[in-house]
Write a structure and sequence with these properties.
Radius of gyration: 26 Å
Keywords: Signal
Organism: Parapedobacter defluvii
Mean pLDDT: 93
Pfam families: LVIVD (PF08309)
Helix content: under 10%
CATH superfamily of the largest domain: YVTN repeat-like/Quinoprotein amine dehydrogenase
Number of helices: 4
Largest sheet: 4 strands, antiparallel
Low-confidence stretches: 1-24
Strand content: over 45%
Strand order of the largest sheet: 1-28-27-26
InterPro entries: Host-pathogen_enzymatic-act, LVIVD, Quino_amine_DH_bsu, WD40/YVTN_repeat-like_dom_sf
Distance between the termini: 40 Å
CATH architecture of the largest domain: 7 Propeller
Protein name: Photosynthesis system II assembly factor Ycf48/Hcf136-like domain-containing protein
Length: about 700
């Protein structure tokens, strides 16, 4: 197995070396893309799994273990791969009926399959023995389709199944591994098709052309949007709040906010069957009518290129596919209508750079302005499951607490030995969907959930075994500003100062102040509107400083000496140079601020704390997407997500900050959302890289 993994690593490394010789910084011409980029995405390997069969169900059981199942000819069979889809073997035949879907649990010995007769089968020993758990319904579809197409095992251990009742598709729910079921009733107006996990919840589509969403583990479902009057089949979630959805007429729709709102982004030939997300804005799209082409997007669905038909047999098409991620590679596995498995493998660095070059936003910082990054790394770890879109880092006694938005968890990492950081616990709780921010006071960890509008409190005296002690709802959905309506960007950041916590609420453009003297019973004591968004917060000497991102372009100063009656004392607004204000830091009498959309770093004089005065700002072409700040001695460290870099800024003279140098590295790709300093250690959490990196600042200084 180790040798096989080594060979996989060599394969993706070779693929990573295949770079197009093109100019960066401007979008590539479509002809250049077709000639130099597309061939890499057509380098499929083909494996015939079952002659004449149809593979419409495929799931990853764990690590490199993949399971697929058959419909049509040779139906009811399961095949397994233990080397990331390179080779396959027959596993079992639990049924004589079509298998339409598989539900994995994270344990390779326990998984479920669904048949076209709405039968749920379960194994607890890796497929050697099977039991029919339940036949959920008779076929009530009037158009000749199977009775059921989707089964899912959620992160809370709940089983969900959809049916295709033409009078309204039902969802069935079990919280005891299929022993008992609850029929949640008709969700859509017609049959339901595919269930998809989307970060903070679940979505389902179907024949009525609408999207439905649940954020309570499938207990209740809300109609989100009517996209079309034709059937929706293909759907995929690609992280960073982005989804793609295709319909039977060839229309492609996109959501950039976890499925809460959609727009049409393309029209292609052929009816949509499935998407296969590659990552970083690249996605395959298969159609099952007309020429049965596979298409590719490299910009999140805006533009598409045809890759032609599959290299299998005539008339075949991509039926259903998945993406398997390793620390440094992306593997796609797609079952086809004729019983083949089509596989592609890419180095993550190759996909990142290729997508950036195609879209004209790849910018390599000049070597004269950079210092080597790899030589400053002390230790690191990668975990694609537990470090899924980290947003923040707070530290205490050698432990890092990292909220992970897409993972709906807080990763707790022991870095007391910085050479070998270890994940010691992953804190999961239905109250922390969209875990966005964390703060510590003593032995208590406060976790902010953007979706749930909740602050949950945990006793972390033993970081390996956190204990929940309370939770409180703060605000809710809604919008305050006339020009900014959002039911999506809710709670954003938490800052603790003394006995009080300050919570920003973006869609309400509001700040809540909590009394946390009794962590088992935190209490909201006041709130106020900012008038221009609410994102990062920082309190210093009884003054609250606010970065007004979402949608603001302001630095807002608030007198909080009276916590019940806070008073806004100043607002510095600049729709150009402060657009997307999102991070704050203080050293002595200087306040440092970055604005993501403006690409600026600011220094403010706060000798008069309630009336900040502009000292200076930097707008540098290599500081693209500045999003977080950390300060150590006379340096400010600013993360830039757009060109995956870290700016080191000399702030010895606060009135005239100067960029010293940059560190830029592929392992920093979109690392903007997690930074902290502990002594001489700089800690980074990578959003797309799913990594935790420890850097020696003394080594950085020597470079």
């Amino acid at each position: 197995m180790k040798e096989m993994i080594k060979r996989i690593g060599l394969l993706v490394a070779l693929l990573g070396c295949l770079e197009a010789n093109v100019s960066a910084q401007q979008p590539l011409d479509s002809t250049v893309v077709s000639e130099t980029i597309l061939p890499h995405f057509k380098k499929w390997t083909v494996n015939e799994i079952v002659k004449g069969g149809r593979i419409d169900a495929i799931r990853q059981l764990e690590d490199g273990v993949i399971l697929c199942a058959t419909r049509g000819a040779n139906r009811g069979q399961l095949f397994i791969s233990e080397n990331y889809g390179i080779t396959w073997r027959f596993l079992a035949k639990p049924t004589d009926h079509d298998i339409t879907c598989i539900a994995e649990t994270g344990n390779r010995d326990e998984f479920y399959v669904l048949t076209g007769y709405a039968e749920v089968f379960r194994t607890l020993d890796g497929g050697r023995n099977w039991s029919l758990v339940k036949t959920l319904t008779e076929n009530k579809n009037k158009d000749g389709y199977a009775a059921a197409y989707a089964i899912m095992y959620t992160s809370n251990g709940t089983l969900l199944v959809t049916d295709t009742d033409s009078n309204g598709g039902h969802i069935y729910r079990s919280t005891d591994k299929g022993e008992t079921w609850t029929d949640k009733g008709a969700v859509g107006k017609k049959g339901l098709y595919r269930l998809e996990k989307v970060g903070n919840g679940l979505v389902v589509n179907g024949w009525d052309g609408a999207i439905y969403k649940s954020i309570d583990d499938g207990e209740t479902w809300n109609h989100v949007q009517q996209l079309t009057d034709t059937a929706l089949f293909a759907t995929t979630y690609s992280g960073l709040a982005r989804l793609l959805q295709g319909d039977q007429a060839g229309n492609v729709y996109r959501s950039t906010n976890l499925g809460d709102a959609w727009e049409k982004c393309a029209k292609l030939e052929g009816a949509a069957d499935d998407f296969v997300d590659i990552g970083y804005g690249a996605t395959y799209y298969g159609t099952y009518t007309d020429s049965k082409c596979v298409y590719l997007t490299l910009n999140g669905g805006t533009s598409w290129w045809s890759l032609g038909t599959l290299p299998t047999v005539e008339g075949d098409w991509l039926d259903h596919g998945i993406t398997v991620e390793t620390p440094d590679s992306i593997i796609t596995l797609s079952g086809t209508n004729k019983g083949f498995m089509v596989r592609s493998a890419f180095a993550k660095a190759f996909v990142q750079e290729t997508v950036a070059k195609v879209n004209g936003n790849y910018r390599e910082i000049d070597a004269a302005r950079k210092i080597p990054f790899q030589s400053a790394i002390v230790g690191s770890l990668v975990d694609v499951t537990e470090l899924n879109e980290p947003e923040d880092i707070v530290t205490h006694n050698g432990f890092a607490y990292i909220p992970c938005r897409d993972g709906n968890n807080v990763a707790i990492i022991d870095y007391r030995n910085p050479q070998k950081p270890v994940l010691v616990h992953s804190l999961r709780d239905p109250d922390i969907l969209d875990a966005f921010s964390v703060a510590l006071k003593g032995d208590y960890l406060y976790v902010l959930s953007m979706t749930n509008c909740r602050i949950s409190v945990y006793d972390v005296r033993d970081p390996n075994h956190p204990a929940k002690i309370s939770a409180i709802t703060v605000g809710g959905p809604g919008s305050y500003l006339d020009y900014y309506h959002s039911n999506y960007t809710r709670l954003r950041k938490i800052w603790i100062d003394g006995d009080y916590a300050y919570i920003t609420h973006s869609s309400e453009s509001k700040v809540y102040i909590l009394d946390i003297r009794k962590p088992e019973r935190p209490e909201i004591i006041s709130s106020f509107h900012t008038g221009d968004g609410a994102f990062a917060a920082l309190v210093h000497n009884e003054v609250l400083y606010l970065a007004a991102y979402g949608p603001g372009s302001s630095l807002i100063t608030v007198d909080v000496r009276d916590k019940v009656h806070p008073v806004i004392s100043s607002k510095i607004h600049d729709p150009d140079l402060l657009k997307g204000t999102c991070a704050l830091a203080i050293k002595d009498d200087a306040l440092y601020v970055v604005a993501y959309n403006a690409g600026t770093f600011w220094s403010f004089d706060i000798a008069e704390p309630l009336s900040p005065k502009i000292s200076d700002y930097i707008r540098d072409p290599d500081m693209r997407g500045p999003g977080r700040i950390a300060i150590k001695d006379d340096n400010a460290y600013v993360l830039n997500s757009i060109n995956h870099s870290l700016a080191i800024i000399d702030i010895k003279d606060a009135d005239k900050p100067v960029i010293r140098s940059y560190m830029q590295d592929k392992s920093l790709f979109r690392v903007v959302y997690g930074i902290s300093i502990d002594g001489d250690l700089l800690l980074l959490a990578g959003r797309d890289a799913s990594n935790f990196v420890v850097i020696d600042l003394k080594q950085v200084a020597s470079l």
